[in-house]
Amino acid sequence: MKGRDPAVDETGVDGPAVDGTAAHGTVVEGTAVDGTAVHRPFVIRLAALTDADRIVTVLRRSITELCVADHHNDPGVLGAWLENKTVANVRAWIESPRTYMVVADRGTNTPDTDPMSTKSVDAPDPVRAAAVCGVASMSTTGAILLCYLLPEVQFTGVGRALLNALETEARRRGLREVSLESTVSARGFYSRYGYRPSSNDPANSSLLFKVLTP
Ligand SMILES: CC(C)(COP(=O)(O)OP(=O)(O)OC[C@H]1O[C@@H](n2cnc3c(N)ncnc32)[C@H](O)[C@@H]1OP(=O)(O)O)[C@@H](O)C(=O)NCCC(=O)NCCS
After folding, report:
1. What pTM did the predictor assign?
2. 189 inside domain
3. Residue whose CA is at the smallest distance from ligand 1 atom 24
4. Closest by Cα among 63, 62, 132 to 94
5. What range does the domain containing 145 cover?
6. Ligand 1, pocket residues at CB < 6 Å
7. What is the pLDDT along the chain (214 residues), one digit of tens a residue?
8. Residue at 105 is within a domain
């Protein structure tokens, strides 16, 4: 990958370690009286079933508010995109053994258990479910399926931490490559982290690949 390795971060966000411990970082929570940004910590952890409601909110707001370059506020396009973003579907994706799903949780940065070590199905704490501000998922074969966050935490390192978590899991599974179909809105983000169109299919520019370094 060209550029700096996103696993090594100068601003305090780091990806989950190979042993499964969580990634930590901060999101901007507001502005102090003196005008400086107030940061709140977040952690990347496995999605839990009780996160499903909140994940749906994150997905729907992210698509509606951050992906205008894709849907152009066309009700038909937007409606079709949002149609499968339901609590029932999200719960099924969390439970699926073929899907790895993580969330960015700004409720705490000190999880009481190792949140990345098992496929958890119960939320560690309902308060934390309400603090979910981003979500990402990948198939066990390395297809990145989701990477979305709330508009208020955009450009604060959450996306990078989520992507790191997926890439770390792909490496842990011995995968050599990850792929995704990018939105127009996120194209620059993925390019920043080494995702490129296939040389065999340059015309289909929304389909991006990245070869993982060990
Ligand atoms: C794409 C998305 C996940 C990025 O998340 P984010 O938390 O805002 O990104 P980060 O703050 O981690 O940014 C990391 C770096 O990428 C850059 N970046 C982020 N979004 C970018 C964009 N759209 N174009 C170019 N660069 C971008 C940041 O400037 C930052 O660069 P820096 O390290 O040089 O400062 C988020 O904007 C989002 O949810 N977008 C809408 C949903 C979407 O399209 N998801 C992709 C589905 S395939």
Report:
1. 0.81
2. no
3. 188
4. 132
5. 23-175
6. 62, 66-67, 147-149, 154-160, 180, 182-183, 185-186, 188-189, 192
7. 222 222 222 223 333 333 334 555 665 555 556 665 556 689 999 999 999 999 999 999 999 999 999 999 999 999 999 999 999 999 999 999 999 999 999 875 444 444 443 334 344 555 555 799 999 999 999 999 999 999 999 999 999 999 999 999 999 999 999 999 999 999 999 999 999 997 777 666 789 999 998 8
8. yes
